[in-house]
Amino acid sequence: MKRITKFIGFSRKPREAVTYIMKKMKIRLLLFTLTFVSLHLNSQVVPPKEIYVPEILDHKIAMNLSDVFPDFSYTLLEATNGSYIGKIEMLFMDQNLILVYESMAKKLLRFSKDGRFVGEFMRRGNGPGEFIEIKSIDGNGNGALLILRNGQYIDIMDYEGHLVKTLRLSGTPVIARWVNPNVIALFYPYPNYYLNEGYEIDFIDRNGKLISRELKHSMKDTGSGIGTYIICQHNQGSLYYWNPQNDTVFTISQSAKVYPRYIFTHNGRHSDAMKTRTATYSPSLDAAYIVDLYHEWGDYIFISGFNNRISYLGLINKKRNISGDVNYDMKKWTYKGLLNDVDGGMSFWPGQNQPDGSVTKPIDAINLLEIIEHNRSIGLKVDPAKKAAFQKEVSEKVTELSNPIIMRIAK
Questions:
Q1: Alpha carbons within 13 A on the beta-carbon side of 38
Q2: Are 101 and 57 in contact (CB under 8 A)?
Q3: Nearest residue to 336 (alpha-carbon basis) of 358, 367, 307
Q4: Positive/negative CA dihedral, 334, 349, 249, 48
Q5: CA distance to 109, 120, 128, 129, per residue, from 102 (Å)
């Protein structure tokens, strides 16, 4: 007993030593219990919030650009030998770097932040740092690019185009995204997950080692033809994944976990028609609200789809408590978006979120001039002086050979 009292620092009676040990054990048991309960609560998956589509599209609210975005800018991409762009398949902007994947000529072009052409960023080929086809481009905000190419390869490169590492993948994902500087998410939507043991998302480290898998599918799940168009983008620090097969938006945490966040519903249920829809049009969809595209930026959610075979655009901002249809010209689809009542120029609908927190959309240069005239013809209310200054600036820079213009909304 003397040894015990000496070990715990007592020079008192043995009974006091026993009492002291019992108190310490109770405290440790309490701490253990609290830790266990906390971990249990944190591990529980919170059900996704329901977004009832008919309530959003109430046909009562028409919003213009000034109702949503405080400021935006245009960047004209320089058109010269080697930099002519037919169609922009992918666009990446961060720091002093703009990358454009031109899908017609299969070129990855590099521009400076002000639109000046620098050169080709990668060469054509099958070797490391070369490509035949690019599936996705992403940046982690720390100068590291993630380029998914040639079906089963990922190149990690710096912003100067130097190859850091090449990873060979076992499957064929359609999108690769940074989860954090050391973890990469690979997405295998229908039907790709059939060749990935039924998993829709893989998480790997920078060396290509598998960390975990998420969203397991039953091999009986036939999927949906319309469900192949997924979107996974960064939203100012977080990563979201939109899967139209089940009308669900997932959050991907920094710890490589996947949680359902929103589910779109109509008539008290989510769109079962989306899961069973095939290439043949089903009359049962006539009365359904179909959400086929989803995008979020900041506190805003943008959706588009069909209701009674009529297309719609919808916008939600829970913090500002606004939602409704977006006002756009149905007569010419190129005008679809939030009508630009700021300077009378191009209407806007989000394209791609960038690592710096902005959102961008490429637009045709000549089309921009046409839309300025169109907005004048419909009597869109806009500051005349601002419109005249903007029209003059565009007219002096744009020709028939001009490359697309990048419209950028800052955070």
A1: 6
A2: no
A3: 367
A4: negative
A5: 7, 11, 20, 17
Q: How many Å is the maximal CA-CA distance in the chain?
A: 98
**Is pLDDT of 59 > 70?**
no
Element (DSSP H or E) covering residue 391: helix 384-397
Cβ atoms 18, 25 nearer than 8 A: no
DSSP 8-state secondary structure symbol assigned to residue 338: B
What angle (nearest 5°) sits at the alpha carbon of residue 88, between those of residues 151 and 124? 45
Q: Which residue has the higher pLDDT, 16 or 210?
A: 210
- Report the pLDDT value the prediction gives residue 383, as an integer from 0 to 100: 85
pLDDT at 127 over 80: yes
Question: Per residue in 164-210, pLDDT tens?
Answer: 999 999 889 999 999 999 999 999 987 788 888 889 999 999 999 99
Decide if pLDDT at 328 tops 80.
Answer: no
pLDDT at 119: 95
61 in helix, strand or coil?
Answer: coil
- Say how far apart CA 368 and CA 54 lie, in whole Å: 33
What is the SS3 assignment for 50? strand
HSE on the CB side for 222, CA within 13 Å? Answer: 7
Residue type, 45: V
Distance CA 367, CA 139 (A): 30
Tokens at 12, concatenated? 């008192």
What pLDDT, on a 0 to 100 scale, did the predictor assign at position 60? 57
